[in-house]
Amino acid sequence: MSMQNYDNAPRVGFKRLFANAHDAKNLSWHSDDRKSDGLLRHPADSPQWKTIDRLYPEFGDEPRNLRLDLASDGMNPYGSLSSNHSSWPVLLMIYNLPPWLCILRKYIILCMMIAGPRQPGNDIDVYLTPLIEDLKQLWEEGVDVWDANVQQTFRLRTMVFCTINDFPAYGNLSGYSVKGHHACPICEKNTSFIQLKHGKKTVYTRHRRFLKAFHPYRRLKKAFNGSQENEGPPKALTGNQVHDRVKDIETAFGKSQKKTSSPNNMWKKRSIFFDLPYWSDLYVRHCLDVMHVEKNVSDSLIGTLLNIKGKTKDGLKCRQDLVDMGIREQLHPISQGRRTYLPPACHTLSTAEKKSFCQCLRNVKVPQGYSSNIKSLIALNDLKLIGLKSYDCHVLMQQLLPVAIRGILPDKVRVAITRLCFLFNAICSKVINPHQLDDLENEAAIVICQLEMYFPPSFFDIMVHLIVHLVREIRLCGPVFLRWMYPIERYMKVLKGYTKNQYRPEASIVERYVAEEAIEFCSQYMETVEAVGVPKIRHDQTRGGQGTRAFNVVTMSRQDV
Known about the structure:
Blueprint: E1 3-4, H1 9-18, H2 21-26, H3 29-32, H4 47-55, H5 57-60, E2 66-72, E3 88-94, H6 99-102, E4 109-114, H7 124-140, E5 143-147, E6 152-156, E7 158-164, H8 167-174, E8 193-195, E9 202-204, H9 239-246, E10 286-287, H10 290-305, H11 316-325, E11 334-336, E12 339-341, H12 351-362, E13 378-379, E14 384-385, H13 390-404, H14 411-427, H15 437-454, H16 462-465, H17 467-477, H18 486-497, H19 505-523, H20 540-543
Parallel strand pairs: 2-7, 7-10
Antiparallel strand pairs: 1-4, 2-3, 3-4, 5-6, 8-9, 11-12, 13-14
Helix pairs in contact: 10-13, 12-13, 13-14, 14-15, 15-17
């Protein structure tokens, strides 16, 4: 494995942006033009942003100093030609920009490409070392940059506001072990788990701890695990507390090295991000990715409702675990000679109900560009959904699922699933009232508790558990739509298209990225050339009063005929 990068990549990208007067003005948008009405619209409205301004006034007083988001994930540069190659681009997003510009391809900087074919895993710190050293120098010393908007040179400093990754990469960057009994990085050692004997998996329950002190669900026994719940929610560790736990861990990098961490220590290493002087002062250092949480919850929910083989969370082993736990006697398996009968659960759908569910989704028609063709995702013969992408699950959970389950489930189960969909819809809002976050956090705990009452224990993997922590990160870091992986995944699709040399895919991607950066910089001096990475709005003609129907039809005159 090797690493492809070019020297001072972030600095080059920052200087290029400030050399353009329009972009330089946009980089101060959060201070000059942002709407400040007490609502959460941008990371600049969040407590984490304001805390950095308060602790480091020299940094906060200069609005042109950049707050960055670091994202990295594995991708296969060969597309579907090979399933074993994993390349890891390291990307930077700039939060100073308006929300509609943060996610555009032009303003995402590729600062490093970690070559495959194996994923770096815990050794990712080795590859990030030169980048972290550069970011540390940009924080402490800064760099002189020409601002074309005000026509002067100033001292630019930068900081990493947070990181965005899927959950396995979350563990690689943070140094926390996201597998096993204590897989939740927020609950840490207070994570409540059950090791299923027959299902051979770890599940995470007791979400009644996150309810208010006198909520009636806390007193229920039969509907949950047979006992009342008196404990409160665990408190998340601060940055200084995390640093105290990892500062003495000795890490030996390399795939062949023996693991030195003990079962009682959930932290595998001291993250290299702690080399940044401000890292311990951040409330949320690594953000949970709502995109992957929503997709995994959607897959589990659809697979269980339709009883899809390999995806359902209900089955014989699950029912045997209910027998061992001594709960829900009405669902225990019944042996009849050589056969075993599984009584239907409240979430079990009959064949007619499955057909109704699939037919409803098959008949859905949506506007162009709203989602993929839902009809192509439905297999009526097998009564299942196939080929669901992340955005398909997003649309399904937030819009279509509450409609499709009307009339085919018991009221209590249907209401619980609908409330879960409404919860994701509220979490993904672009404008959030901070006064409503307490109610939203309580709603998340209630919904998970209702799902505990109706779904089997094997349904509650770590992704379902993470739902109760999503509102906390909104409260501290701002809206979700600037902290999820959708823009990163779209950009990685562009990077895959740069792979022209099959023998050196990473070098090919970096070479074409540098060429694109040069072309984009030169395009600023040509009036008729459009900027690279800024898509055109498809609805300009409609907004201007000009329709698009039959717009390309050419009417020929009699003389032309």
